[in-house]
Amino acid sequence: MHNSEAMALSAALLAAAGELTQRIHEGVLARGFEGIRPAHGFAFTRLAPDGATVTELAVHLGVTKQAASQLVDEIVRKGYAERRPHPGDARARLVVLTERGWACTRAAEEAAAEVVQAWARLLGEGQVRALRDQLTRIAPYGPIRPAW
């Protein structure tokens, strides 16, 4: 593959990821979840299903503990998460999604499904499955991080 082809593929993947993030965000807002940002969704993926400490969230997001703490303060203030005593460490607090946080997560899943359904109408379901399978083979395992 020539450099120009590699750049074209890179640009297409980045554009698709950006469009997907934006469409999910718009879908969440359209479902009535105000004051939410895409970065919150990236945090919610780590908080579900069992919660996380601020330190664990910072590692997941690839940010400092202070930045993760500020994000947690924000989502707690907006009612999407709450701090609870950590069951295994008396010094730590566990950040868990509230029912509002879970509802927002479900709204994001619905919005993502709508985007993928649009891709299926354009490409065909078989092609979308093949795309998923191929991307799964090359995508790194681990946290999906926001591009702040």
What would you say this structure looks like, in words?
66% of the residues lie in helices and 7% in strands. By secondary structure, the chain is mostly helical. A hairpin with a 7-residue loop joins strand 1 and strand 2 (93-97). Helix 1 crosses helix 5 (99-123) and helix 5 crosses helix 6 (125-138). The radius of gyration is 17 Å and the shape is globular. The mean pLDDT is 92.
Amount of beta strand: 5-15%
Mean pLDDT: 92
Strand line-up in the sheet with most strands: 1-2
Assign a percent range to the helix content.
55-70%
Q: What is the first-to-last residue Cα distance?
A: 30 Å
List unreliable stretches of 5+ residues.
none
Give the overall form: globular
Number of β-strand runs: 2
Task: Sum up the structure in keywords.
6 helices, two-stranded antiparallel ribbon, mainly alpha, 148 residues, globular
Strand and helix map with partners:
Elements: H1 3-30, H2 38-47, H3 54-61, H4 65-77, E1 81-85, E2 93-97, H5 99-123, H6 125-138
Antiparallel strand pairs: 1-2
Helix pairs in contact: 1-5, 2-3, 3-4, 5-6
Question: What's the short version?
Answer:
By secondary structure, this protein is mostly helical. Helix content is 66%, strand content 7%.
